[in-house]
User: What shape does this take?
Amino acid sequence: MPVHELAQLTWEEVRDLDREHTLIVLPVGAIEAHGPHLPLDTDVVIATAMARAGARKLADRGRVVLILPAFAYTAASFGAAFHGTLSISAITVTALIVDVARSLSDQGFPVLALANAHLDPEHLTALHEAVKLAHADRLLPIVFPDLTRKPWGTRLGDEFRSGACHAGQFETSIVLRERADSVRDEVRRSLAPNPQSLSTAIKAGKRTFEAAGGSRAYFGDPAAATADEGARLIEALGSILEEAVLAAI
Assistant: This one.
């Protein structure tokens, strides 16, 4: 079955889709500092790659999939002190996701899946709240596989499990695979590993990259990244999305 980019269809083409077998995927990222070597839209790149990989897998199972334009503005307080990071309130994020879900419900679509690559705690809370509110309002279900929770995160490699994974080997590998020309590769190769764990810092009450030990807005080992690893990680992210959607429907 086909995978469509919703924004590239006409309204009549959308009208004529088989609603019963059509799934919606929304890539969710952020505009946020990702070290001195990755672009500000890194999370959007990763979320879009996850959405497309998951959509292909769902299409192979007989589903039509519509991928929405990526959601790029969200709560990003951890990186707010770094130039270029754009952070909005969590309340706004929740409201926007719920409003999108309401519009899709009004058009008869059966499910909305979030392909999320931004792991700021405030942002994650906003997405979970949107899931709850959509359910309470009897809108279409929102499927949100939170990569910071089991079992999903355990499938994304040692660096991801360590929590030292912002703009490190994990994220950089995916961007190298998806959009290598946006990586400042000479800078990337010069960066020393930063083993400070963001997840440990968050549990300790830290609330910014600097406080967590990331003075240049990266954690992990970007110099160790490869495009081949990026391809494997994208497939893993796509499988996570596929499995979460199939479990929900």
